């Protein structure tokens, strides 16, 4: 409510912040499920690959909190420690998305336009968050506003990091699964269950299409190898005929 005097920009800050907090929280919920072995082997494998990064962030966060607790000066929410704890996550997600340009599903390259769109979105977010951090640091906002925006920056960075890592993981595995938290969140209501069912159907269709593509690629490789062998045999046969002559 402290943003209500900021016009249209305040509406953007609050409406953008809320979903990002929620998305990051759902990912962290799935993370703790994976640590306890309470979800699928697919998700356990995914989160095992990034748990070192998440624990490193948690350790740095605790260290900063301890430092501010022990310091004689009173903590000020205009410090940008929490915001800049999330900025590296956003930077890492940019480079993760950048590597998608070289990935293939079977032998089919990914479309470049969506990848460049994601990269542009991440760069825009990074520049915007840098601007917000500058405004926070120069005391443009009240304490509550500064805290809201810092949590938004951190949550968005964390969300982008996990989402980009999952995208890389799924494309390398050539298989998709839906996050457990999405199932629990959507299936609370009947309408949400229908939405989840449509997600599940789309994921199954994608997995089936990828499997068909992989089989088609394998068959194409076999046919190419067979044609190559046949051509080699014909060449050898021709050589033998020439020798007899």
Distance N to C terminus: 96 Å
**Counting H and I runs of at least 4 residues, what is the number of helices?**
7
Give Rg in angstroms: 25 Å
Shape: elongated
Mean pLDDT score, rounded? 85
Order of strands across the main sheet? 1-2
**Beta-strand percentage range:** under 5%
Name the poorly predicted regions: none
Question: Strand-and-helix sequence, N→C?
Answer: HHHEEHHHH
- As a percent range, the share of helical residues equals over 70%
Observed structural traits:
2 strands; 245 residues; 7 helices; mainly alpha
Provide a descriptive summary of the structure in words.
With 245 residues, the chain is an all-alpha fold. It is built from seven helices and two strands; from the N terminus they run αααββαααα. It has a two-stranded antiparallel ribbon. Strand 1 and strand 2 form a beta hairpin. Helix 1 crosses helix 5, helix 3 packs parallel to helix 5 and helix 4 runs antiparallel to helix 5. The protein is elongated, with a radius of gyration of 25 Å. The N and C termini lie far apart (96 Å). The model has no long low-confidence stretch (mean pLDDT 85).
């Amino acid at each position: 409510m402290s943003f209500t005097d900021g016009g249209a920009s305040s509406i953007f800050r609050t409406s953008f912040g809320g979903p990002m907090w929620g998305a990051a929280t759902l990912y962290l919920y799935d993370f703790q499920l994976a640590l306890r072995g309470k979800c699928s082997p697919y998700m356990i494998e995914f989160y095992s690959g990034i748990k070192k990064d998440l624990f490193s962030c948690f350790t740095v966060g605790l260290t900063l909190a301890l430092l501010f607790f022990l310091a004689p000066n009173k903590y000020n929410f205009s410090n940008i420690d929490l915001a800049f704890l999330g900025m590296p996550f956003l930077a890492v997600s940019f480079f993760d998305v950048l590597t998608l340009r070289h990935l293939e599903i079977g032998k089919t390259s990914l479309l470049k336009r969506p990848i460049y769109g994601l990269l542009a979105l991440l760069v825009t977010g990074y520049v915007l968050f840098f601007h917000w951090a500058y405004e926070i640091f120069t005391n443009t906002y009240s304490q509550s506003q500064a805290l809201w925006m810092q949590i938004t920056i951190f949550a968005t960075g964390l969300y982008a990091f996990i989402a980009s890592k999952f995208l890389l993981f799924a494309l390398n595995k050539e298989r998709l699964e839906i996050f457990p938290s999405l199932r629990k969140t959507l299936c609370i209501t009947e309408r949400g269950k229908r939405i989840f069912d449509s997600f599940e159907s789309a994921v199954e269709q994608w997995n089936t299409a990828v499997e068909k593509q992989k089989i088609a690629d394998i068959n194409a490789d076999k046919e190419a190898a067979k044609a190559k062998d046949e051509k080699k045999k014909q060449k050898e046969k021709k050589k033998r005929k020439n020798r007899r002559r």
